[in-house]
Write a structure and sequence with these properties.
It is a single chain. It contains 8 helices and 17 strands. It is an alpha+beta fold. The strands form 5 sheets. It has an 8-stranded mixed β-sheet. Strands 10-9-16 form a 3-stranded antiparallel β-sheet, with no helix packed on it.
Length: 271
């Protein structure tokens, strides 16, 4: 469970703040971002808070895990599917242990290789907590896989995962690489013409991951954050930068685990 000491802005130590089973508090009112990194915790529940998040419901007994592994079981065709005329965005949960190897998920279909798949985009993860937020926002049910994600997670804020952070899931070692950028195929799949704008404003992009060590993952597998890099740039930071914010570009360009695509993008906007 969480350790019981937190350092607040006024440097007053507040013991036992996480001793309750559940607690709700506004992180923006309590912490600066640097101070949030001083929160001591163990691996039973990984939260990497950000002042952009209004409130978090925290269950200190929750273990981060994969709810479902999802692959494309139906290939859609139509004008909305983009230049390829086909898309594998429609991911659905599958039973059993699924193999993750090389640059993707065995049995999955990635049609548009220019924008999906490859080393830096081998696996896409999206949090069930964010899916639930979208359900409330748009007023309709969203099943696991609705975002085109391979892994639907629970108990970890995927958007606050650091670039280069490593996850052990099943027998697979994954590394957080970059955020998902919405496209018109995604909007077409949801039949929401304004989805790109809404998705950008929501700042809940989910994370692409590299496969560092091949293996298998199944529904229910624990998700453990086994290492974190020595910087503070997270998925949401990179997404905001790509969406127009430039205040953290100097920090972002120093991240050694930055994907080739983002290195090239930063070089382009600086020249």
């Amino acid at each position: 469970m969480f350790m019981s000491k937190v350092i607040l802005k006024n440097e007053v130590e507040v013991p036992n703040i996480f001793d309750r089973k559940e607690c709700i508090f506004n992180l923006e009112d309590c912490f600066d971002r640097d101070e949030l990194n001083q929160i001591e915790y163990q691996n039973t529940y990984k939260i990497f808070p950000n002042p952009a998040i209004d409130q978090l419901n925290i269950d200190i007994n929750m273990t981060a895990k994969v709810l479902t592994v999802n692959i494309a079981q139906i290939i859609h065709e139509g004008a909305w599917t983009g230049s390829e005329g086909r898309t594998g965005i429609d991911k659905r949960p599958v039973a059993g242990a699924i193999r993750f190897e090389n640059e993707g998920v065995v049995g999955d279909s990635v049609i548009d290789r220019n924008h999906h798949g490859g080393y830096d985009q081998a696996v896409y993860a999206y949090g069930r907590e964010d899916s639930d937020w979208w359900q409330r926002e748009i007023g309709r049910e969203l099943n696991n896989g609705a975002f085109g994600e391979n892994l639907t997670t629970e108990g970890i804020d995927v958007n606050q995962s650091l670039i280069g952070e490593r996850w052990q899931v099943g027998t697979v070692l994954l590394e957080v690489s970059q955020p998902r950028i919405p496209c018109r195929v995604f909007a077409g799949f949801w039949r929401e013409p304004s989805l790109i704008k809404k998705f950008t404003e929501a700042k809940r992009p989910g994370a692409y991951l590299r496969i560092i060590e091949e293996g298998v993952i199944k529904a229910g597998d624990e998700l453990k954050v086994v290492s974190r890099p020595n910087h503070l740039i997270c998925i949401r930071d990179l997404f905001e930068a790509k969406s127009g914010a430039r205040d953290k570009i100097s920090e972002i360009k120093q991240v050694p685990q930055l994907s080739l695509k983002y290195k090239e993008w930063i070089s382009k906007i600086e020249n």
